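I need you to check the entry underneath: sequence plus fold tokens. Let me know what the token row says about the fold.

>
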Amino acid sequence: MKKIIKSRFIWLLMVYLMVLSSCDELEIEPSCSDQGTLQVCNKSLHTVQKIIINNTNYGTIDPDECKDIKLAVGTYTLRMEGVSGGNGCNIVSTFIIAECDNIGRSCSH
């Protein structure tokens, strides 16, 4: 009886391994929902920067701080303006966000 159970177990194990080896692995691409990420960093020493993208205020970032902003696929214009008494960077940058894209911009005034 033990031999029958053992031989059936081995047979089932072999069948299971054959089935596993015949399956192809599927590559699943991450879904970014038609969005990408803009990372904005403030490398300035003393000035808080206001983040303005396509004339919309996305808040501020302190010196030596970064902020990730999810954006829909498209073309954007970024402005960073000093708001804490310093000159700030006052930069203007145009960029394109593609799906799943990660890009960065920084201010180092």
The mean pLDDT is 82. Helices lie at 2-22. The first strand starts at residue 35 and ends at 42.
